[in-house]
Design brief:
By secondary structure, this protein is mainly α. It contains 10 helices and no strands.
Length: 179
């Protein structure tokens, strides 16, 4: 989860700097990390509840949805709930990190800001909203996203280059991805 958070923050910063191609690379890496996590968690499905209970106490508060990292990941992805911060009052560092993420734009917010800078008609209430609040459905975005998907090569970069950035596993030469 720590690596996912690192990569997600990096992708968000890159989107905020209008560097979509390397951001897509980070998001592709996150996808692969999540696949590995899911595959590892599937091993737990082979355990009976009593088998899991034999070692569950060793996981402590770092287990799944009880962890600060899990909550941070949720906040970065846009699933924000201010009430969750109170659960970490005992840990000032975690509490402060969660509060900061709660008040900052999520990945989705950063993408909407990016689209706005590219001239897409993103409704002002979405760009100036209270980041601590959950998203609500906005029908105007349906038309914006339809325009993006209709002609991706005109909207971004060539489709081939975008696909290469988001799916390749290793750079073709040192420094090729700008990292």
């Amino acid at each position: 989860m720590k690596l996912v958070i690192h990569e997600l923050r990096s992708a968000m910063a890159l989107i905020g700097a209008d560097e979509l191609a390397p951001a897509l690379k980070r998001l592709a890496r996150i996808k692969h990390i999540q696949k590995q996590m899911t595959d590892q968690w599937s091993v737990l499905a082979t355990l009976t509840p009593s088998e899991y209970a034999q070692f569950r106490h060793l996981l402590g508060k770092s287990s799944g949805f009880q962890s600060a990292q899990y909550r941070l990941l949720e906040f970065l992805l846009g699933n924000k709930n201010a009430a969750m911060i109170a659960l970490f009052e005992h840990d000032p560092a975690a509490r402060d990190e969660l509060r900061q993420a709660l008040c900052a734009p999520s990945l989705y917010d950063e993408f909407l800001l990016f689209l706005s800078r590219r001239g897409y008609p993103i409704p002002a209430e979405l760009l100036e909203r209270d980041w601590t609040q959950p998203h609500t459905l906005n029908q105007e975005l349906v038309h914006v996203f339809a325009a993006v998907y209709e002609t991706p090569e005109q909207q971004w970069m060539s489709t081939k280059r975008a696909r290469n950035w988001s799916t390749s596993k290793t750079p073709s030469r040192p420094g090729a991805f700008g990292t």
